[in-house]
Amino acid sequence: MTSQLDPINLFKALTDKVRLSIILLLHAEKELCVCEFSEALDEIQPKISRNLALLKTAGLVVNRRQGQWIYYSINQQLPEWAQQVLTDTYSGNQAFIEQALAKLNKIGEHEARPKILCKSK
């Protein structure tokens, strides 16, 4: 269950560099899986998953399963003020994720990346 989103919870969720990067990447790419975040941010999967869980608990992201992959996106049910904060943060800070986006784009098209990056166990 997600907590009630208020400014304190929103800004607390964004104070970590990995979580902020995840949100900005989602703003740019709309939807990504854990292995894409891991590659883009050069972080291990457990750290990405832990931060995604915190963002999900805060109500900032949602996920969906497609086959063996779980894709994350920004929660479209966020209050308008919160969506505006995320949009403004992205608009003013695209350079923050420039290298991460370049890494993803170098790998391939959005749809092909999970097959390239994610190894089924």
TrEMBL record:
Keywords: Arsenical resistance, DNA-binding, Transcription, Transcription regulation. It comes from the Bacteria. SMART domains: HTH_ARSR. One of its GO terms (molecular function) is DNA-binding transcription factor activity. Residues 1-93 form the HTH arsR-type domain. GO terms for biological process: response to arsenic-containing substance. Transmembrane segments: none annotated. The keyword Transcription regulation applies. Gene3D superfamilies: Winged helix-like DNA-binding domain superfamily/Winged helix DNA-binding domain. InterPro entries: ArsR-like_HTH, HTH_ArsR_DNA-bd_dom, HTH_MetalResp_TranReg, WH-like_DNA-bd_sf, WH_DNA-bd_sf. PANTHER family: ARSENICAL RESISTANCE OPERON REPRESSOR, TRANSCRIPTIONAL REGULATOR, ARSR FAMILY. This is Metalloregulator ArsR/SmtB family transcription factor. It comes from Shewanella fidelis. The lineage of its organism: Bacteria, Pseudomonadati, Pseudomonadota, Gammaproteobacteria, Alteromonadales.
